[in-house]
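This part of the workshop introduces the protein records we will be handling. A learned vocabulary of local backbone shapes supplies the integers on the structure line. Getting from the letters to the tokens is the skill we practise here. As an example, a complete record with its sequence and its structure tokens follows.
=====
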Amino acid sequence: MDLREVIVRRVGGSEEQRYQDLMEEHHYLGRLPKISETLWYIALWRDQWVALLSFSSAAWKCAARDRWIGWNSHHQYSRLKLVSNNSRFLILPDWHAPNLGSRVLSLCQKRLPGDWREVFGHPLVLLETFVDPQRFRGTIYKSANWLYVGDTKGFRRTGKGYGPRAHSPKMVFLKPLHPDAQALLSCPFLEEPYRTRGAKMMLKAEQMRSLPQFFSDIPDPRRAHGRRHRLSTVLAIAAGALLCGMRGYRAISDWAERLGQKARERFNCRCEKGAYVVPSFYVIRDVLVCVSPSHLDSALKRWNETYGKEDKSLAIDGKTMCNAIDEEGRQAHIMSAIGHETKTCYTQKK
């Protein structure tokens, strides 16, 4: 077999049943349904199917991968869409030729980022896969310059979380598709086009000016000595950053630093030597830690009611907060009311 004649392309709609039947027959894990973001590929040699591959959404949790990336929990769940899992790789019987696997994998890696952007509208930064060491040694991935970063703990994800017993740990391999994949995935602020999730909006000048007014009645929990920034300004900047898609103290601080002088004036920032100064990372963090959540929630509701009048209908949505555990050991579930037209979140209820 001349490997230069091997090509890789996406599975067509009329070919999906054949693809699934072959996976069910020859792959030890069987077929894999198309859930969320998934692309299927076939490798051909002179129009003959020689290999099948599937790329799906990344694993929710993987300690070895997360340590390698270096991201925190706030960033992890909002950036998982930048990672894809090579969930299936099958070389069909009678087609096991030297170097075929690494050749097919290399061809797939070259076209996958473009296909992913075309189909799902956002880029990929990193690929991952899990190899069962009781069956394989990961030779194909090693040959294709994937990085072995450790093993899983062996727990399986179920509909109610993770199973109570550990099964066979898997080897974890990663393939960066971006030269600075680690830095990009773990940085506090994502530039376009890598921002893929989270409610975002563009604040108008009037909205910037109004935000501090809604926080002006909140009692300041800080000591009077050493205050350099108004409480209403700090809270308004934090709220503005969240409305624009920022998550986490560092991302909020970076967003504040990027504000121009006109925007800083609208937020009623402190003026020093003719220039408006934004609160630092430590000021923002300390204020958000100690301010009353009920006062903050009330102020945000009033702001939403004022600027959400364009909405003619509401959507009710809910999600489980991954790292929020209540006193009974259960994960907190939050229901939200969101305006269809403005994408404004009017209220949330645990």
